[in-house]
Amino acid sequence: MASRLNPYLTFNGDARQAMEFYKEVFGGTLDLKSYGEFGQADAPNADKIMHGMLETTSGFTLMGADNPPGMQSEQGSPFSVSLSGDDDAELRGYWVKLSEGGSVSVPLEKQMWGDVFGMCTDRFGVPWMVNISTES
């Protein structure tokens, strides 16, 4: 297998809902494994996600999990997930779905560098940047 770099998101109890949401946004195959499936069937977090992975036909891989008990994550930490390319319809479709129920900090519109760009935070607190390249 070739090396790859992809986001791994951490959630405070709603990883299942978040990863299912991202499957609705991007399509693809979602594999979710709970703590219960990894030997913690009687634990209070047995139904929470220990590891989730979404792989799409566009070549995206997004991973995520719920924090184990006693660990907290800070939503909105200093990161953003960036989507970029030149397929206007595809990227606008992702934007609409990601921003629905979330907040928009920079509207998706033409910017001074010539591309269409926007920033939003989805309903799970994950910040996204979308850049649609345009021909000069």
TrEMBL record:
SUPFAM superfamilies: Glyoxalase/Bleomycin resistance protein/Dihydroxybiphenyl dioxygenase (SSF54593). PANTHER family: PROTEIN YJDN, PROTEIN YJDN-RELATED. Residues 70-83 have a biased composition (Polar residues). Residues 5-130 form the Glyoxalase/fosfomycin resistance/dioxygenase domain. It comes from Streptomyces tibetensis. Gene3D superfamilies: 2,3-Dihydroxybiphenyl 1,2-Dioxygenase, domain 1. This is VOC family protein. Pfam families: Glyoxalase. CDD domains: PhnB_like (cd06588). Coiled coil: none annotated. Residues 61-84 are annotated as: Disordered. InterPro entries: Glyas_Bleomycin-R_OHBP_Dase, Glyas_Fos-R_dOase_dom, PhnB-like.
